[in-house]
Amino acid sequence: MNGSPSPQAVQAMRTLNSKFFRKGVILAVSSGMIYGVFSAFITQGMAVGPWAEWYGENSILSTFVIIYVLGMLGSGINDLVSSLWATGIAGVRGKFMDFLRVFRTKPGLVMIVCALIGGPISNSAYIIALQLAGPIAATITALCPSIGAIISRILFKQKLNLRMACGILICLTATFMIGSLAFTDVDISPNFMLGMVFALVAAFGWGFEGAVGGYGTTLIDFQISVSIRQTVSGFVTIFIAVPILCIAAGSIGLWPTLVGGALTSPTAMVFFLVSGFCSAITFAFWYKGTSMIGAALSMACNGAFSFWVPFFCWLILGVIFGQDGFNLLPIQWAAAIIMVFGIFLIAINPLDWFRKKAKEA
């Protein structure tokens, strides 16, 4: 016996690896789809109950509060609810004590940093972008895989070949297609471009989270990772970021008024319970997928939310709840699809698929 594996063993290992890879891709793609559902429900939650009054034409709140404080508040409440879902699921599976222990480790610290950047900064920027520019802002935030690839190249010296550069160029082209709408006669929000700026901030934050957080997800159980992320993000946003913005707005008294009004509204909180659950699941799938197929490919698969967010906002908010303003122009759908293609090109070489088929033939 020469000690080399048999052809049957080699084939079995290839099959196992193929199933493992396929499961990772399915999880990452599913995370993008669920993110679309999350975006629709949090938008609906911030349109009913006291939110309708705060955002209404007769609102007594200042423009600063309406744009920045409410956006941050919505993000914080969602992440706070999401943290309860995430830690509850971890607890049911007997991982709550592990969740507490990981906070004191180096990988845990990495996840905390990622949570601060991806949560209070990026999540809030994304929510503000949704309020200002509508669901098409998701197409801009889906630049995060491109940005993550660049950050990985700078920080971790990861390769950035011609194919990946072409994918980034395609994503930027799709972004230009969306941005060009601001210079046409299309009836868009007067705050459209400001919303695009916030969407770009979210993309940079999530690009950093994907590039750096990929390290943490290889060392920490994905359920614990998402529990850390949502807990840190929710508490920091509600108890630090929102009060600071209220002080900047000229009244710290706004903080208990707004937080209390939002949390005690049954109408709004029903939607936040759903959005929080979807948020916990989408990040759990993303983190699990990242640990299975790597950060670059996981971000690429997840980045298809550039299509799923407009789709589910149109379906849930426009069709089911009858809200106006969620019908998308053909150029917007086309740009979202082009963005998805560019995202996948960053992580996947299409020629590899043809080579694989040729070998199997």
Properties at a glance:
single chain; mainly alpha; 0% strand
Folded structure, characterized:
- It is a single chain.
- With 361 residues, this protein is an all-alpha fold.
- The chain has one domain.
- Helix content is 80%, strand content 0%.
- The protein has 16 helices and no strands.
- The chain has helices at residues 7-45, 50-55, 63-92, 96-102, 106-133, 137-141, 144-156, 162-179, 192-217, 222-248, 254-263, 266-293, 295-302, 305-320, 330-347, 350-360.
- Helix 4 (96-102) crosses helix 10 (222-248).
- Residues 182-186 have low confidence and may be disordered.
Write the SSE topology.
Layout: H1 7-45, H2 50-55, H3 63-92, H4 96-102, H5 106-133, H6 137-141, H7 144-156, H8 162-179, H9 192-217, H10 222-248, H11 254-263, H12 266-293, H13 295-302, H14 305-320, H15 330-347, H16 350-360
Q: Could you state the oligomeric state of the chains shown?
A: single chain
Terminal residue distance: 31 Å
Q: Please tally the β strands and state the result.
A: 0
Strand content: under 5%
Largest sheet: none
Helix content: over 70%
Identify low-pLDDT runs: 182-186
| Shape type | globular
Mean pLDDT, to the nearest integer, reads: 79
Gyration radius, rounded = 21 Å
Which structural category fits the helices and strands?
Answer: mainly alpha
Number of helices: 16
